[in-house]
Amino acid sequence: MRPGVNAKNRHGRLKEVNQLVASLKELRIWERAEFITEHRNKLAQRHPLNQASRCLSELRKQRERILAEDIPHKANQLKLDVIQKRINAVAVRVSQTFEAAF
Length: 102
Prior knowledge:
Blueprint: H1 3-26, H2 29-43, H3 46-68, H4 73-98
Helix pairs in contact: 1-2, 1-3, 1-4, 3-4
């Protein structure tokens, strides 16, 4: 599985959920119950998707800081490997968790 494809799917899912939330806010109170029932699975994914995006963003920032450091290649590579494993773990977790909702 290519990492770029997962990122596109994750961003697309987050965008879709945010659009649903925006649509929900525009509805009248009596229309909201039906809308929530219809889109419950997707709406429930908003918080976890946002958390995953923030986590991945922070890991990418850490990776960029390490690349900018003036440390021997081996030490950097060990740190980068750990960060990449964490990025992959988050991506897999998001993919598995949200497959059913989308």
